[in-house]
Amino acid sequence: MTTEPSRASFRIGFVPGVTLSKWSRLWEERRADLPLDVVEVTGDVTEVLDVLRGDDRVDMVLARLPLALGDDFSSIALYDERAVVCFGKEHPLAAAGKDDELSLDDLAGEVRHDLDPALDEAQAIEVVATGSGVAVMPQSLARLHGRSGVTHRFLSDVRPTTIALVWPIGELDDDIDDFIGVVRGRTRNSSRSRRRDDDAQEAPAAKAKGPGKGGAAGGRGSGLGQKKTPPGGRGGPQRGTGRSRPRRGR
Questions:
Q1: How many CA atoms lie within 13 A of 234 on its CB side?
Q2: Rounded distance, CA 16 to CA 43, Å?
Q3: Per DSSP, which regions of 30-133 are E strands?
Q4: Cβ(84)–Cβ(152) under 8 Å?
Q5: Fewer CB atoms < 10 Å away: N or C end of the chain?
Q6: What value does the mean pLDDT of the chain take?
Q7: What element of type H or E holds 162?
Q8: Alpha helices (H) along the chain
Q9: Distance (Å, whole) CA 24 – CA 9
Q10: DSSP assignment, residue 190?
Q11: Is-contact 17 138, C-beta < 8 A?
Q12: Is the Cβ–Cβ distance between 182 and 27 less than 8 Å?
């Protein structure tokens, strides 16, 4: 892992449908020294990785798999999104209860606007709202682009999509590791966060070491005339007991 680079902010890209509010709040609590700059990444799936390249790039991106990561990018899978089918509320498929699941067989004969390369998800739902055909997509996108007159049902036989955190190989530094810790649920006192605090505490202690430090000769800081602490601990009161350690007989 490399040392921390100098950043004015930590830039995170995200594809539509991903919600960062919880992670943003945790980052602000733990890394008030480094503002989070959130950038929405739109466009074709082949363009998602472009935001990790160039002069105006982001440090990491939350994207949907699969992506052509090759040997250039690392990724961590975070969670899965179930697929739904969207249709007009007057569509015959709406007869299924909200808790019922449909299958691809139920869509036989329907025009699937999500398969039209000329339409993005928002446009596909606009067409569906007219009562024409259906559109299949992750539930988060159905909610994001939802509109009155359109409803959706889960599909039982469509594989879920995966949201992953992606960054360039070889660029794992302390800031990136901290954000990985946030999205993976590490506590403040674990991993990198704990090491950062430990380093801050050890620095003053190291500075205080050396001859003449810590008081008179024979004091703890001088290292002169000191007796080594016996394996059994120091003589004198035991912490928490209020009693003195009994002396050994000679």
A1: 6
A2: 10
A3: 36-40, 60-65, 73-81, 83-88
A4: yes
A5: C
A6: 82
A7: strand 161-168
A8: 21-30, 121-129, 139-144, 174-183, 191-207
A9: 13
A10: S
A11: yes
A12: yes
**Do residues 144 and 16 touch, judged by C-beta distance below 8 A?**
yes
User: Over the range 64-73, which residues count as b (16 or more CB within 10 Å of their CB) and which as e?
Assistant: beebeeeeeb
For tokens 């999205």, what's the residue?
A: 183
Beta strands 60-65 and 10-14: pairing type?
parallel
Distance CA 122, CA 53 (A): 27
Furthest-apart CA atoms within the chain: distance in Å? 100
Residues in the chain: 250
| Range in 95-99, 103-107, 190-194 the model is least confident about | 190-194
What letter would DSSP give residue 168?
Answer: E
Helix (H, G, I), strand (E, B) or coil at 208: coil
Give phi and psi for 169, each to the nearest 5. -60, 140
**95 by DSSP, 3-state: which?**
helix
Please provide the DSSP assignment of 221-246 as one string.
TT-SSPPPPPTT--SSBPTTT--BPP
Do the beta carbons of residue 205 and residue 214 sit within 8 Å? no
CB 58 within 8 A of CB 13: yes
* H or E element, residue 151: strand 150-154
Question: Would the pTM of this model clear 0.85, i.e. be above it?
Answer: no
Interval 131-174: pLDDT, tens: 999 999 999 999 999 999 999 999 999 999 999 999 999 999 99
